[in-house]
Amino acid sequence: MDDEYDSPSKPLLLLAEGGGHSDLKKSSATAAYFNFAKAAIGAGSFALPWAIMESGLVLGVFTMLIVGGLSWYTMLLILDLKHQSSVLLDAPLEKVSFTDIGRSVHRRWG
Q1: Of 87, 85, 83, which Cα lies nearest the Cα of 99?
Q2: Phi, psi of 9 (to 5 degrees)
Q3: How many secondary structure helices (H) and strands (E) does the chain include?
Q4: Tens digits of per-residue pLDDT, 8-44?
Q5: In terms of C-beta density within 10 A (0-12 exposed, 13-18 middle, 19 or more buried), how is residue 96 classed?
Q6: Angle at 90 between CA 87 and CA 93, to 5 degrees
Q7: Residue 85: exposure state from Cβ atoms within 10 A (0-12, 13-18, ≥19)
Q8: pLDDT value, residue 16
Q9: Number of CB atoms found within 10 A of residue 52's CB
Q10: What is the 3-state secondary structure (H, E, C) of 49-92?
Q11: Helix (H, G, I), strand (E, B) or coil at 27
């Protein structure tokens, strides 16, 4: 077996194509958001009818509202952390990434 495939630091697809990390194109935060949203909505759209059928209409709608509220609250917390990280890092708000938020909250482990 070739030694380069034993390295966990490079994705297997890039190694197979002979490329490295420099071949990766950077995407914007908006593109990343829409890719994540499409994946989440796509998977959830298949499971949602079954979940409502199993739990019943009232409990299903109530649970969806609770989970939606928790998701909204989590988004607000992340936005607040983004503002705090912007001040802490002395960086413009639009330049603070999710990685920066993680590092400012968790320091070395972020």
Answers
A1: 85
A2: -80, -15
A3: 4, 0
A4: 554 444 444 444 444 556 667 788 888 888 887 877 7
A5: buried
A6: 65
A7: buried
A8: 46
A9: 15
A10: HHHHHHHCHHHHHHHHHHHHHHHHHHHHHHHHHHHHHHHHHCCC
A11: coil
Residue range 37-87, pLDDT digits in tens: 888 787 778 888 898 999 999 999 999 999 999 999 999 998 998 888 888
Q: Which residues contact 17 (CB under 8 A, 6 or more apart)?
A: 23
Output the pLDDT for position 39.
83
Which whole-number Å values give the CA distances from 108 to 54, 60, 103, 104, in the listed order?
A: 44, 41, 7, 9
Nearest to 78 by CA among 108, 46, 105, 54: 105
Reported as half-sphere exposure (CB side, CA atoms, 13 A), residue 46 has a value of 5
